[in-house]
Amino acid sequence: MARIRRLAVGALALTAGGARRLADRLPRRDGTDPRPGRWQKVTVAAEPERVLPAGRWPEPLRRLDGAVEVWARPAPGGRGTELAIRPLGGECTLPGFAAHLVGDDPGRYLRHVLRQTKQLLETGEVLRADRSPLERPGPVR
Amino acid sequence: MRALCWAGADAVEVRRVPDPELRNAQDMIVRVRRSITCGADLPLLDGRVPEASAGEVLGREFLGEVVEVGTEVRRHRVADRVVVGSSVACGACWFCRQGLLACCDNGTSGVTAEPEWGQPSAGGFGRPARLGGFAGGHAEFVRVPYADVGAFAVPESVSDDRAVFAADAAPAGWYGAELGEVAPGDVVAVWGAGAVGQLTAGAAVARGADRVIVVDDRDDRLSMVARHAGVEALNHRYVDVLAELRERSGGRGPDVCVDASGVPAEPNRWPLTEADGGAALREAVHACRKGGVVVVLDARPGVVDRFPLGALADKGLAVRAARRRGATAIPELLARMARDELVTEHLATHRMPLERGADGYALFRDRADGCVRVVFTP
Question: pTM of whole model > 0.90?
Answer without folding.
Answer: no
